[in-house]
Design brief:
With about 90 residues, the protein is an alpha+beta fold. The chain is built from three helices and three strands.
Amino acid sequence: MMGTLATVMAGKKIATPESRYQADVEGDIENVNGVLKITQIRVKYHLKVPAEKAADARESFDSYLVLCPGAQSVIGCIDLKDELVIEETA
Protein backbone atom coordinates (compact mmCIF):
# COMPACT_ATOMS: atom_id res chain seq x y z
CA MET A 1 0.00 0.00 0.00
CA MET A 2 2.79 2.39 0.91
CA GLY A 3 4.57 1.78 -2.38
CA THR A 4 1.43 2.30 -4.43
CA LEU A 5 0.70 5.59 -2.68
CA ALA A 6 4.30 6.71 -3.27
CA THR A 7 3.96 5.84 -6.96
CA VAL A 8 0.74 7.84 -7.29
CA MET A 9 2.39 10.78 -5.53
CA ALA A 10 5.42 10.54 -7.81
CA GLY A 11 3.04 11.09 -10.72
CA LYS A 12 2.20 14.43 -9.11
CA LYS A 13 5.88 15.26 -8.55
CA ILE A 14 5.73 14.63 -4.80
CA ALA A 15 8.94 13.14 -3.42
CA THR A 16 8.60 10.38 -0.83
CA PRO A 17 12.07 9.67 0.59
CA GLU A 18 12.23 7.92 3.94
CA SER A 19 12.98 11.21 5.70
CA ARG A 20 9.65 12.68 4.49
CA TYR A 21 7.34 9.68 4.17
CA GLN A 22 6.59 7.02 6.78
CA ALA A 23 3.74 4.77 7.86
CA ASP A 24 2.56 3.40 11.17
CA VAL A 25 0.79 0.07 10.70
CA GLU A 26 -1.30 -1.87 13.21
CA GLY A 27 -3.61 -4.81 12.88
CA ASP A 28 -6.01 -6.98 14.79
CA ILE A 29 -5.98 -10.75 14.91
CA GLU A 30 -9.15 -12.28 16.30
CA ASN A 31 -10.54 -15.72 16.94
CA VAL A 32 -13.27 -16.18 14.33
CA ASN A 33 -15.10 -19.47 14.78
CA GLY A 34 -12.01 -21.10 16.25
CA VAL A 35 -9.63 -19.77 13.59
CA LEU A 36 -7.21 -16.90 14.13
CA LYS A 37 -7.91 -14.32 11.45
CA ILE A 38 -6.53 -10.89 10.61
CA THR A 39 -9.67 -8.76 10.83
CA GLN A 40 -8.38 -5.21 10.53
CA ILE A 41 -5.32 -3.33 9.30
CA ARG A 42 -4.82 0.34 10.16
CA VAL A 43 -2.28 2.42 8.26
CA LYS A 44 -1.42 5.99 9.22
CA TYR A 45 0.80 7.68 6.64
CA HIS A 46 2.96 10.65 7.61
CA LEU A 47 4.10 12.94 4.82
CA LYS A 48 6.16 16.12 4.89
CA VAL A 49 5.34 18.09 1.77
CA PRO A 50 5.61 21.70 0.57
CA ALA A 51 2.37 23.58 1.23
CA GLU A 52 1.71 23.96 -2.49
CA LYS A 53 1.72 20.16 -2.91
CA ALA A 54 -0.62 19.35 -0.01
CA ALA A 55 -3.77 19.28 -2.17
CA ASP A 56 -2.04 16.98 -4.69
CA ALA A 57 -0.99 14.68 -1.84
CA ARG A 58 -4.57 14.49 -0.56
CA GLU A 59 -5.83 13.77 -4.07
CA SER A 60 -3.27 10.97 -4.42
CA PHE A 61 -4.33 9.51 -1.09
CA ASP A 62 -7.99 9.62 -2.09
CA SER A 63 -7.33 7.57 -5.23
CA TYR A 64 -4.49 5.12 -4.54
CA LEU A 65 -6.36 2.16 -3.01
CA VAL A 66 -8.09 1.17 -6.25
CA LEU A 67 -4.63 0.88 -7.84
CA CYS A 68 -3.02 -1.09 -5.01
CA PRO A 69 -2.61 -4.84 -5.63
CA GLY A 70 -2.16 -5.60 -1.93
CA ALA A 71 -5.22 -3.65 -0.84
CA GLN A 72 -7.35 -5.01 -3.67
CA SER A 73 -6.34 -8.55 -2.69
CA VAL A 74 -7.70 -8.24 0.84
CA ILE A 75 -10.57 -5.74 0.56
CA GLY A 76 -13.70 -7.64 1.51
CA CYS A 77 -11.73 -10.02 3.74
CA ILE A 78 -9.87 -7.61 5.99
CA ASP A 79 -11.15 -4.21 7.10
CA LEU A 80 -8.63 -1.60 5.90
CA LYS A 81 -8.48 1.80 7.55
CA ASP A 82 -6.03 4.38 6.31
CA GLU A 83 -5.33 8.01 6.98
CA LEU A 84 -2.85 10.61 5.80
CA VAL A 85 -1.24 13.12 8.14
CA ILE A 86 0.38 15.95 6.21
CA GLU A 87 3.00 18.25 7.66
CA GLU A 88 3.33 21.22 5.37
CA THR A 89 6.86 22.50 4.91
CA ALA A 90 8.18 25.75 3.51
